[in-house]
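Project channel, design review

CF: Before we commit to the Rhodococcus daqingensis constructs, I'd like one complete example in the thread so the newer folks can see what an input/output pair looks like. Taking Sulfatase-like hydrolase/transferase.
RD: sounds good, go ahead.
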Amino acid sequence: MVDRAGEFRGVLPIPDRQHIGLTTYDAKDPDTAFPPIEPLLPPEGAPNVLVILLDDVGYGASSAFGGPVHTPTAERLQRDGLTYTRFHTTALCAPTRAALLSGRNHHSVGMGLITETATSAPGSCGIRPNTKAALPMTLKLNGYSTAQFGKCHEVPPWQTSPVGPFDAWPSGGGGFEHFYGFIGGENNQYFPALYDGFAPVEPDRTPEEGYHLTEDLADRAIEWVRTQKALAPDKPFFVYFAPGATHAPHHVPAEWADKYAGRFAGGWDAERESILDRQKQRQIVPEGADLTDRPDAIPVWDDMDDALKPVLERQMEVYAGFLEHTDFHVGRVVDAIDAMGALDNTLVYYIIGDNGASAEGTLNGAFNEMANFNGLAAIETPEFMAEMKDKLGTAEAYNHYSVGWAWAMCSPFQWTKQVASHWGGTRNGTIVHWPDGISSKGEIRSQFTHVIDVAATVLEAAGLPHPTFVNGVQQAPIEGTSMLYSFNDAAAPERHDLQYFEMAGNRGIYHKGWSAVTRHSTPWLPNEVLPALDDDVWELYDGTTDWTQAHDLAAEMPEKLAELQRLWLIEAVKYNVLPIDDRRFERLNPTIAGRPQLVSGNKQVLFPGMKRLSEHSVIDIKNRSFSVTAAVETSTNGATNGVVVAQGGRFGGWALYVKKGRTAFVYNLLGMREFTIEATEDIPSGSHQIRAEFAYDGGGLAKGGDVTLYHDGRSVGTGRVEQTQPMIFSADETTDIGDDYGMSVSVGYPGETRFNGRIDVVQIEVGDDDHSHLIDPEEVIRVATSRQ
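CF: and here is what came back for Sulfatase-like hydrolase/transferase:
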């Protein structure tokens, strides 16, 4: 494609043109002439683009889509824009984000599941092929200013360290000139692990001083947009605003949660009915649509323990406050663009959720969602949850809401996040706002659309071609369909009429109004015994008469079901879905999964000043014996204090530290119990070696072990850790040398965590008694329960 400026944009970067003509000897010669240098710009009229992607918001949560949570920014954009009622995601965060930013199906870009479960299979390897360049890269190479704020969950785990490679990082191969946010699936909203570009940075305030991550991200986005428009007003921007909200942990100042006090006393069953009524009133859902049945796996509200109900109510109040708080800060970004006079020519996508609401919080909800991810949810008893009620939403909790609330927030559909087979997992409310490009205002669009359509839409709106070559690599076609055709024509026949879905064995196919689906696994049951894939039961729905997938026609129309099943298989082959991989715990183990490991062998040496090392950047000490040895220099009179090495944080991890001149080791089990072993004597002043040895009990996962402390090879203290975390310490905290960034592993530190002596080197060594391959979830649960 050649645009009006005469630039050929099918090859990116646009090739430089050598000047051909008279070259004079003296620049003062009157015949000296060269064409002026002009900045690279996209075609005239190309809009700014703002893509807002919220996290873990079900279709029925936002008031813009009939939900109970007040979202005035979404409603404001609805009034002057378009509401897409059949927009779809992939049912999980990293796959949706990879699909959004590439315009390709998630298996096509190697993101069959989340990055932490990457395998060696092409569809699940966690690596986007260089034949499928990201949208921001294409836009940057066409003259857009590009910036991302918030969550990036597309970096393979072995590339998350400070040494990269940075091909998958936003400001590396991702195509963003500026990035401020976090790498990974979730983050603590009060103590986030942040990056500015590639450099780890710390928040400039504490929660007590009013810090919250969503507000910080909005501040940074506003600052960047103002700067961009002040200094390069002729260049359009592409801003990707992806807060960690409303993914767990559900963190929000109490005043936002308190707005909803008592609002959810009726429970999730009644809430679903109310949501559907409001959806019909808003014409978000057809008048004749039926509410889908409650799955047997989800309890009736009335059957829940009366003593637990106040906790369950508070969980939903906190979540509602969290979502309204998020929408408020999205509104600040929109207002800032409007105040600069740029909103009318800004194509805004407000995608309210990257999948359905998250049902990963167990039936009772969670004080620390990491318990379930470690197979230890049984630790959080109803009695314990009742004790923690008033801490939900605060920095003292890492909380999630109950499965029942997630299901209600996906109303009127079946199921939730992770369940790619049903609309509850994949249908998300989406609003498109672009006054200069859309003459229709406040209208509804019911065409089937998908997250892979966003890239194609942006390129068409900007007048840009799908590139043939990017950075010297020939490109595969974009797989999405531009939505531009529907912007000003509500009756336009849908163009995206075929779409497969698959996530951990949950699978489905949409074709011209029909859908065939099969649910294979349950999101909140990581220890579930799964059926053989061929034993899965398929369902059939006619979307022209059954908008919510409420009436299964499989028994009545077996031929139609078989037709769609074959079509799913064809699409699965086409887009690298096969082999279907329903493993869970196994895929967390890199050796079993077949992905690279940044650190191998039995020994790792670390140095002072190293910080924000992801869990994948450090040798794995779980389910085995290990030792930590440090060469330090200390002061006299017990004046030496601080952390030598810490992994994880307040909600799970371990640390070797010095307290009032004495060595100590702490193991924090999920933020619920700390096992602390302290030396019986001071470290002598001067240079010495301190050491902690952990002797694992063996026999499976999550076992305990004995700890011995040493000064210069001499035993100075012993103690015991009764149980350990088998899978993961934290989704956001890191490993730090000489300090403990984020939230401290232990509440027992002596004030400041920075080590005030000198550390020369730290060595972590693991034994050969690795039990990680012994995947025995039932044993993990038994051990967890027996510790109560």
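RD: helpful, thanks. The first helix runs from residue 72 to 80.
CF: Residues 166 and 172 are 5 Å apart (CA to CA).
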